[in-house]
Amino acid sequence: MPQIIGLTGGIASGKSTVANMFRDKNIPVVDADIVAREVVEIGTNTYKQLVETFGNEILNSDRSLNRPKLGSIIFQDEEKRKQLNNIMHPAIRSKMKEQTKQYIEKGHETVVMDIPLLFESKLTHLVDKIVLVFVNEKTQLKRLMNRNELSEKEAVDRISSQMPLKDKVALSHAIIDNNDTLSYTKQQLEEILQEWHIPN
Ligand SMILES: CC(C)(COP(=O)(O)OP(=O)(O)OC[C@H]1O[C@@H](n2cnc3c(N)ncnc32)[C@H](O)[C@@H]1O)[C@@H](O)C(=O)NCCC(=O)NCCS
Ligand SMILES: Nc1ncnc2c1ncn2[C@@H]1O[C@H](COP(=O)(O)OP(=O)(O)OP(=O)(O)O)[C@@H](O)[C@H]1O
C-alpha cells in the first residue's frame, strides 16, 4: 500500500527545507504553495473569482496577481481570509489530490503532501502519517521577517492567522525540531524514515 505523508508546520517553520530533503531521497512532494500559484494563473476560474471578489487592486499592471498586495489584505482581516480560502482551497485540494494520484500510478510507494494548513483546513484525512516541522516562536518570527522582509507587525499577523505551532504537536505522528542546524534537521528526518520503514 502506498503511503502518503502529510508535511506541515507553521509559516516559515521550514517545511520547504524539509520537503527538499525528501526530494533528495527521491520521495516526491506535492506542495500546496506551488499548487496555490498554479490555480491563480491569469484566466483560470479561481483567478476570475479572486478579481470579482477583491477587485483590480490585487492585480499587477500585466494583470497577474499581485501577491504582496493580496497578502497585505488577507493576513490582517479574518473575514477576507475566509473569502480567499473559500475561493482557492477547493481548487488547490483537487489539484493536489490529482498530482498525488499520478505519482502513485507511476509506482511511488511514498508521496509527501506539503500542506501548511493541514489542520486548519481539516485535511488530515488525505494523509496516512503527519510530520510536523517545529520551531519556537522567536525563531519563527525572526526567519519570517528575514525571508519575506516583513515588519514585526506584518510577520505577527501572518503567524497569528494560523493555529499555534505548539497546538499542532499533539496532533502529529512525528516532530522535527528545526530550531538548530540543517544537518540536525536532516538527521531527525532520517530517523523518522527509518522508524517508519521508508527506504531512503
Ligand atoms: C495570500 C498569498 C497570495 C500571499 O502570497 P505570498 O507569496 O506572500 O505567500 P506564499 O504563497 O509563499 O505563502 C507563504 C505561507 O503563508 C501561509 N499562508 C498562505 N495562505 C494562508 C492562508 N490563507 N491562511 C493562513 N496562512 C496562509 C502558509 O504558511 C504559506 O506557506 C498566498 O499566500 C495565497 O495565495 N494564499 C492562499 C492559498 C493558501 O491558503 N495557501 C496555503 C496552503 S493551502
Ligand atoms: N535549520 C535552519 N537554520 C537556519 N535557517 C533555516 C533553517 N531552516 C529553514 N531556514 C530558513 O528559514 C526560512 C523559512 O524556511 P522555509 O522556507 O523552508 O519554511 P516554510 O515552512 O516552507 O515556509 P512557508 O510556510 O512560508 O512556505 C527560510 O529562509 C530558510 O532558508
From TrEMBL:
Keyword terms of this UniProt record: ATP-binding, Coenzyme A biosynthesis, Cytoplasm, Kinase, Nucleotide-binding, Transferase
Pathway in which the depicted protein is active: Cofactor biosynthesis; coenzyme A biosynthesis; CoA from (R)-pantothenate: step 5/5
EC category: transferase
Presence of the UniProt keyword Hydrolase in the record: no
Keyword ATP-binding part of the UniProt annotation: yes
Major localization class: cytoplasm
Source domain of life: Bacteria
Subcellular location(s) per record: Cytoplasm
InterPro entries in the cross-refs: Depp_CoAkinase, P-loop_NTPase
Enzyme Commission (EC) number: 2.7.1.24
Reactions listed under catalytic activity: 3'-dephospho-CoA + ATP = ADP + CoA + H(+)
A GO MF label: dephospho-CoA kinase activity
NCBIfam families: dephospho-CoA kinase
Functional description taken from the UniProt entry: Catalyzes the phosphorylation of the 3'-hydroxyl group of dephosphocoenzyme A to form coenzyme A.
Assigned protein family: Belongs to the CoaE family.
Protein name: Dephospho-CoA kinase
Organism name: Sutcliffiella rhizosphaerae
